[in-house]
Inverse folding.
């Protein structure tokens, strides 16, 4: 399962609160998805006082990397990220390379 059960439970509660049939994160009118700017601004507020740049893209990148490190097939990650090309997803494979390193007793 790509998302932990507590996260799925919270998202389910969120959806039940607004019942939008199309978007998990609708705008205030419910006729479109939440605006990118609102998401970026929310991240900025939530991340204030943290080190490093916390952005929606960074969260997406961390999610994909974690999936790959946990052995999720690259084609599944491609689908979850909505990439049209496997080449776009393949950038995450270099981050899992330390798991493939030669053990120290062979070096």
């Amino acid at each position: 399962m790509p998302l932990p059960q507590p996260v799925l439970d919270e998202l389910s509660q969120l959806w039940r609160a607004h019942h939008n049939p199309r978007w998990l994160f609708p705008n205030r009118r419910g006729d479109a998805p939440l605006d990118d700017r609102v998401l970026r601004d929310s991240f900025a507020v939530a991340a204030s006082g943290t080190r490093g740049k916390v952005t929606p893209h960074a969260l997406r990148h961390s999610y994909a990397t974690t999936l790959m490190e946990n052995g999720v097939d690259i084609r599944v990650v491609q689908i979850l990220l909505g990439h049209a090309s496997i080449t776009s997803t393949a950038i995450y494979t270099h981050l899992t390379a330390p798991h493939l390193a030669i053990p120290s007793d062979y070096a």
Remarks:
- Confidence is low (pLDDT under 50) at residues 99-107.
